[in-house]
Amino acid sequence: MLDEHGDEAKVVAGSTALTIMLRNRLIDPSVLVSIGRLPGLADISADDGHLTLGSLATHRDVELNPIARERIPVLANTFHKVANVRVRNVATVGGVVAEADYASDPPAVFLALDAEIEAEGPNGKRSIPASEFFLSFYTTALAQNEIVTAVRVPVPQPGTRAVYEKFVTRSSEDRPCVGVAASMRLSADSDITEDVRVAVGAASETPQRYPDLEKMAVGKSMTEDLARSIAEGYAERIDTLDDMRGSAWYRTEMVKVWVRRALMHALADARAQA
Amino acid sequence: MIDARERVTGRVPYTINVEMPGMLHAKLLRSEMAHARLTRVDASRARELPGVVAVLTGEDIVAMGSIQPRFGPVLRDQPILAYGKVRFVGEPVAAVAAVNADIAAEALDLIEVDYEELPAVFDADAALADGAPVIHEEPPHPGPTFADIILHTGAGSNMCNHFKLRRGDIDAGFAEAVHIFEDEFTSPAVQHVPLETHACVASHEGDRIVIHAATQIPYILRSQLAEVFRLPQSSVRVIVPTLGGGYGAKCYPNIEPIATALSMVARRPVRLVLSREEEFVTITKHAVRIRMKTGLRADGTIVARKVEAHFNTGAYADIGPRLIKNGGYGTGGPTDIPNVWIDSYAVYTNLPPAGAFRGYGISQAAWAYETQADMMAERLGMDPLDFRMRNLLETGQRFATGEVVDDCHFKELLTTVADKIGWDASAPTRVIGPDNNGSGRKAVAKGISCIIKGTVTPSTSTANAKLNDDGSLNVLTSSVEMGQGIHTAMATLAAEEMGVPIERVTISQVDTDVTPYDQQTSSSRSAQAMGAAVVGAVREIKEQLVQRGAELLEAAESDVEMVDGKVQVRGAPSKALTPSEVIRGTRAGNLLGRGTFQAHGGLDPETGQGLASVHWHQAAGAAVVEVDLDTGHVKVLRYEAAVYSGRTINDVQAELQTEGNVAFGLGQALFEELLYDNGQLQNGNLGDYMVASMEDMPTELGFNILENPERGEIHGIGETSLPPVMPAIANAIYRATGVRVTDLPVTPEKLLRGMQENAAAAKQAIEAELVA
Lengths: 274, 772
Hints:
Distance between the termini of chain B: 71 Å
Oligomer: heterodimer
Strand order of the largest sheet of chain A: 3-4-9-5-6
Helix content of chain A: 25-40%
Mean pLDDT of chain B: 96
Number of helices of chain A: 12
Low-confidence stretches of chain B: none
Low-confidence stretches of chain A: none
Helix content of chain B: 25-40%
Largest interface: A-B, 30 and 30 residues
Mean pLDDT of chain A: 94
Number of strands of chain B: 36
């Protein structure tokens, strides 16, 4: 159907985003293709080191799913922080990645966790790393005739602790001004950092992650100063945007604050379980 | 609430539930331009679309000749549909009625509109500048709804109205002052966001109009429709189901003339319900800039105040010309200032009309004077609480309008909330953190405020009551139930007066064919005004019971009295009759009572002196806030609201009203703001415009509702506790951060910028000292 109607068609699942776009006449498709009742796409399952979130699983499903909560608690926590329960009851996993709204919470976490977006179309299935999926405002690597079928998230190695810091400047139900996902793994017998990841969402067109800045912390003991340096690096590189939740200047300031806080929060959690 | 069961089971009938045989669905085409000549509105293709029954443009309405094409509660300046030109983005240009809403929406796309863009103005300064484009070329035409208002309009300019207040000798006042402070305060336009948007179902068939409307003003709507459609008022029937919130948004006619005109052409009932996006461009709270100059004696008492207030009233007057009176005199604040000079202006701009909004001008006024109070106290080195206690009105003192204020409780209200939060001026700020899991330093501090608010005066309410032959009572009132609980309040008062259980009392829905005149459900007036009318109606029934009971008891009327709801011979409880026995015994069928409440007053148009309010509403607030010093993010930890109710009719509802005010105030203090770009609203939906959610509410919220049983006079509380919220929170934020924000909302970004500037200035000062 997507092939037949081309740009005139839009895929719809939970329709929380699409309805707003339609009502504000931002888009004017002549055909809506509802995938809401496709079987099997709402499952959440774990296998061979991955957690697979079906694209039709709702935010609420992820938030409450016992497997997700046990294997990758930060995912459940992040989906819990999205909007309010009315929205979470219908908004889907596939929808939030396919829409690629810069102000959504989950993309930053998917990027930090090296998630892969599973897509399927007439030419078969493929798997797109999160780092290559989000291209710009509302633009993804999906072909016009492809849909998201699942998001596969590697279960972090034992000992890893991850956090998602959502910072809002208006109502607590607002979208983030800045959202930071950070994960950290300390070596089993010392305070040395073995793995660090930081992804910043909502601050720019797409979520941003800088592996070279992350590596600054590997093999060292994480300190407030080191966290601050990494945060400054992110703030320097991210081309922050202006919107009603904050100016570019303010967002840059918030990247400095929240990357540092996310790292220190992850560190505290990692130490607590060690 | 007496309708609690219906509410929780989803059985309250709202306007959107009204279904009528043959009902059509209407949609509106709205202007894309802020200010433009309409060179062509061609609806011919829309008319041909199958399923479309009626299409109207502004020119169509003018061409009909039988309809007055413009309406408005004070000035008849608002076209039913735009003709000649459009004056704001979102103004209705054409209307379609079709067999269903989808076809009506499709038809809108077939209407072609050509605009010739005109220069536009969006704020008061630009609108009043020399050579500014004039939004209304014709002089405004006043109507008779508010006979007391005397207008100072500026024909040929964008000055919609000017309110003046002159008390004492302003120059002498400032000459006497030891300290003089001049500050500027602004508040932005915000939206009411009622859960239910504007809605109506109109039927104009034959010589009658029957309209179901979500409105707070059934009788003003009736008179406006009668005027527009040139019918006797008796031929217009306004029925008002329960409202899903009003907050002032539904105070004046708006979409009702459009639906009625469509129905007139279609000869079928027409339903018009606004979308949320449309609601955002329908009516707003006035954006205001207030310049306030206050003179103090050495001891901190206020001796003079001069105010210039510019209210951005948008493209049409709505109630703006009247609201600037309240917003103007309101800047006098709860203080007997001997010398006051106020100029308050309503200014036309190319934005959606601004009108009544919970707080009615007083929120904007209080934002100025209660922020300035803290600023002045600091400059004098005084405790903000002491500063206020020195200046707050006491019974017998005079307000800015020169009238003596009776029954004052300002000091008691303020000290109550200050005590609750443990006000201590000597230890204003507590810094906590950082904790070890990444959160930063936070500052906790307290703030207070206190306000005065009038209620619409003069005003009139009438009510009827009907005592049935089983002793049950029907109350006929045109007060609108909009969630505030007016039906419960009226049932309580009627039951109490009649001496029957509340279950035996039924409050009518509003229907102007049946329920008698009421001015409006607004201004926190109904509990007092309609309450007095309802009690009066029941008293009239009781007089008849005594009269008829005396006959049946074969006693002199003067020997008969009402005791516990029965008619009885004085001192002889065995000789008593129930109301039911009286009605049946005299074959009266039922007993009818009428009650009227009327408040008199008014202000001199040149001096603003006179009687502004039949009595005064009083409130105070105290906030404890926590500010994240790295981000400027604010959490309100605790809020104590105090309000003078005189007599509380229902404790739970009084608290709920107050809680609603805190939610409104918290959102407006911290983030609510309508953002326009060249007149185009940027955040006109609930994804982009934020209101306070449950999670944003203060962690601890206290209600202090003060009564005066000796007096027993009911004071309205629907809005009273709202205006203190914004300054109380902002005053607390200042004490936490040292950043004084004078333009609402107090956003994290403004605070962070202010804190960084303060830090830079402090550093510079230290360096300068080292150099020296």
